[in-house]
UniProtKB/TrEMBL annotation:
The keyword Lipoprotein does not apply. The gene is tsaE. GO terms for molecular function: acyltransferase activity; ATP binding; metal ion binding. Its main location: cytoplasm. It comes from Candidatus Campylobacter infans. Gene3D superfamilies: P-loop containing nucleotide triphosphate hydrolases. The keyword Nucleotide-binding applies. This is tRNA threonylcarbamoyladenosine biosynthesis protein TsaE.
């Protein structure tokens, strides 16, 4: 089932309340669509005071029970080879920017719950589509 929202940055808590707080959330969207902004808002919602930023070069940042990934530069096969995939079995919330369908299928194969958030910009508004798989 898909849910759609049209929200500004100040209204993101409405969206966050629809998201699971455990498992994997895949964030998809073009550059500057708001993926990292949503990750920061989720961290704030969870009471995390760390200065969350996009882990473009580190690939993953660990904030205790919150994990933040940026997979812009790598694909699913590389995730499997470098050992990053094993992190998805850890309890907590895994926020994955740039996760693709191949990664989603692999996660589902291992019965890891996945929620996909597609973000797009239309007419100066951010559109969010949530699909829990």
């Amino acid at each position: 089932m898909k849910k759609q929202f049209i929200l500004n940055e100040n209204e993101l808590n409405e969206l966050i309340k629809e998201l699971p707080l455990n498992g994997v959330i895949i964030l998809q969207g073009d550059l500057a669509s708001g993926k990292t902004t949503l990750c920061k808002k989720i961290a704030q919602f969870l009471g995390k005071n760390e200065n969350l930023s996009s882990p473009t070069f580190a690939l993953m940042q660990d904030y205790g029970d919150l994990y933040h990934y940026d997979l812009y530069r790598i694909d699913c096969d590389e995730i499997m080879l470098n050992g990053l995939f094993e992190n998805f079995f850890e309890d907590g919330l895994h926020l994955v920017e740039w996760g693709d369908e191949k990664l989603i299928k692999r996660l589902l194969k291992y019965e890891i719950s996945v929620c996909v958030v597609k973000i797009s910009l239309k007419k100066n508004a951010r559109h969010y589509e949530i699909e829990k798989r």
